[in-house]
Amino acid sequence: MRVVIGIIIVVVAFGVIYWLIQRQRGWAKIRTDLKMAGDVQILDMKVGNGKNFIAFARQLTAPGKIIGVVANEKQEQKIRSAIKEAAVADRAKVVLTDITNLAFADHRFDYVIITGLHQVKPAITRGRVLQEAMRVLTAHGTLVIADSGNMQRYEQLLSYYGLKNIQVKRISGHQVLMAKRN
């Protein structure tokens, strides 16, 4: 019985490691496809663990900047430490604000990234998050949504908001929607 449990643990561990590697490769491809380099302005509306946030920051050169929105002070401190450790403080900043009412000027960001939008509850609030993303996106900006579902609904809303060239790709169990404003 112990042998079977050991085999199951090893298989699950390898599966998780494989999934994480594939996810990192997928995000690397997205970063390459989007050509997020130089002095662009990026908003990451849901930073999460900060790995992608830091990777995006490394691609930029000042005055390019990525601003990450965090949910609480504990996450804010964690991401600030990651920024310092990665030596990207000249290109990365973290703020504690409400994603349904962002504290940024209209049309400020060339790229807006939203991950895990399905976690925003209730569902109607997701529409408000998308409205805020559209408000802060520049006239020729690109919106990127990485989520495990709801892409058809997001596509409908984004078409209504006037986004063009909406593409959905599959990456490690998630779907990634990329849409350009013009």
TrEMBL record:
InterPro entries: Methyltransf_25, SAM-dependent_MTases_sf. Keywords: Membrane, Methyltransferase, Transferase, Transmembrane, Transmembrane helix. Pfam families: Methyltransf_25. GO terms for molecular function: methyltransferase activity. The chain crosses the membrane at residues 6-21. Residues 42-141 form the Methyltransferase domain. One of its GO terms (biological process) is methylation. This is Methyltransferase domain-containing protein. It comes from Limosilactobacillus walteri.
